Amino acid sequence: MPDASASDSKGQIPTNLRLLLILEEVARAGVPVAPSALSDTLSLPKPTIHRLLATAEEEGFLQRDIDGRSYGPGQRLRKLAGNTLSSQRLRTERLAIMQALERELGETCNLAAPGRYGMVYLDRVETHWPLRIQLPVGTQVPFHCTASGKMYLSSLRVDKLKRVLSWLKLEPSTEKSITDTDTLLDELAITRSRGYSTDNEEFMDGMVAIAVPIRDTEGRLLTTLSIHAPRQRYDLETLTGMVPQVREAARRLETLSRQ
Length: 259
What we know:
By secondary structure, the chain is an alpha+beta fold. It folds into 2 domains: 4-72, Orthogonal Bundle (Arc Repressor Mutant, subunit A); 86-257, Beta-Lactamase. The chain contains 10 helices and 8 strands. The protein has helices at 15-29, 35-42, 46-58, 75-85, 88-105, 147-154, 158-167, 181-194, 236-240, 243-257; strands at residues 62-64, 71-73, 108-114, 119-125, 140-141, 197-200, 207-215, 221-230. It has a 6-stranded antiparallel sheet, sandwiched between helices. A hairpin with a 5-residue loop joins strand 7 (207-215) and strand 8. Helix 1 (15-29) packs across helix 3 and helix 6 (147-154) packs across helix 8. The protein is globular. Residues 1-10 have low confidence and may be disordered.
């Protein structure tokens, strides 16, 4: 429910605040939200809710879920969230944490968030080694064959995961890419139980990677922190030995995101 500061003297939500509260509620829920639920939560008439949802959808701030009725964040709202995360003060502190991790491990580290069709790189700190894989900020990589993508998929509820896998094309990026749904589900179950994910040359030949989640106060995945390295420097087994350091950096990033 909106707090008292969000209402006027008659206890009604000001007109110019209603759409913002709808966007806030959709983002807070973490799952697609039906208009009726928004009407109940915000105590707004259903015709008003439908009108505001139509506007938000038309402008790209919200998008309909696969059921055609409920709504989740649209491209512009996700971009707004990414830009907010990239505000100068937070980004400076965030990069300091990532730079410390890169110095400790000597490999490129990446911060990625789920987009509509894959994981989107929000930030990265490059290794000093001449031999490195360059994936600039803004790059979108597949869900099913990257460490960050598999970490995200493993965090989904079973019903949502099944919906995602029903449309996700498991196209091979390398000979080691997982292209079978059952095999991917088995991999995600392992990822979920151990709390980190791997990429064993599944996205790029000669590249291995690990990723851990960065969660909000309710335990939901916000972003992922990953490191990747050429196979010439590390095999996957050696890289997974660095999971504790990556987890500690992720914990610090979680603390930063809650300030």
